[in-house]
Amino acid sequence: HPVVLSTEDLHVYYGKSEALYEGDLKFAQNQITALIGPSGSGKSTFLRSLNRMNDRIATVTGKIMYRGVDVNQPDVDVYEMRRRIGMVFQRPNPFAKSIYDNIAFALRLRGVTAKKDLDEKVERSLRQAALWDQVKDELTKSALALSGGQAQRLCIARAIALRPDILLLDEPASALDPVSTSQLEDTLLKLKEHYTIIIVTHNMQQAARISEYTAFFNQGRVLEYDTTSHIFTNP
Ligand code: ADP
Ligand code: ADP
């Protein structure tokens, strides 16, 4: 599993206060890495810095190497980079549009307009997110009518419609019930065949269930980074 993303001497400041320093973290292709640690330890700051979601509110220095390119440079095409490094948020946030259009929207923006292409990509995305069977007969219904678990899987389908390389997820199950959470975990385990996944979770059992690697954050530092089995057998 080659390394596809790594950070070098990454510092993140909100104003003058340093929220995070991480010298050297590496993410391997088609693996799930869990970012765990107490609230306020910098997990979300780290995740959001990886695809420059923090640009407007924070100062981020150091390198974020994505397949040989430092994507923390000012001349990087952030819009294109985010197509390769997609994000799913804590709260499901479907658009007030039909299920179909939630996914087709970004595809159309990127120039996919033929109905057949859109149909295929919408179906493939919903299948990969394990939502197709439940919604295939109601694609024109509003996405706002979906349950929390379905809405979150729709957000995953939306994020993967553009075929990213890396999927970042910020506590994607924290608003879900146990059944939806377990379905989401199964979906992530399948998605890792196609994508490299980095997931923030406050749930240690979840990290143990789904991830190959775990980074343990505390007070703005990664205290431990190792295979998940090591982290959980040598506390
Ligand atoms: P976690 O995801 O582990 O809960 P965060 O990354 O949200 O941690 O927070 C790390 C630190 O950065 C905390 O001290 C938090 O208060 C601070 N922080 C997070 N977001 C902001 C922000 N937008 N402005 C200022 N400080 C922030
Ligand atoms: P399956 O697992 O159903 O066989 P794959 O996901 O392996 O399908 O992909 C088959 C082909 O479709 C590959 O060439 C891949 O590049 C492409 N593909 C995968 N996901 C998408 C998507 N969301 N949108 C468009 N094309 C995709």
Structure notes:
This protein is an alpha/beta fold and 235 residues long. It contains nine helices and ten strands. It has a six-stranded mixed sheet with strand order 6-7-8-3-9-10, sandwiched between helices. Strand 9 and strand 10 form a beta hairpin. The longest helix has 14 residues. It is globular. The structure holds adenosine-5'-diphosphate (ADP) (2 copies). The site of one adenosine-5'-diphosphate has 12 residues, from helix 1. This is Phosphate import ATP-binding protein PstB 1. Keywords: ATP-binding, Cell membrane, Membrane, Nucleotide-binding, Phosphate transport, Translocase, Transport. Pfam families: ABC_tran (PF00005). InterPro entries: AAA+_ATPase, ABC_transporter-like_ATP-bd, ABC_transporter-like_CS, P-loop_NTPase, PstB-like. GO terms for molecular function: ATP binding.
In short:
This protein is an alpha/beta fold and 235 residues long. The chain has helices at residues 43-50, 78-84, 99-109, 115-128, 132-135, 148-160, 178-191, 204-210, 228-233; strands at residues 3-14, 17-28, 32-36, 59-66, 69-70, 85-88, 166-170, 196-200, 213-218, 221-227.
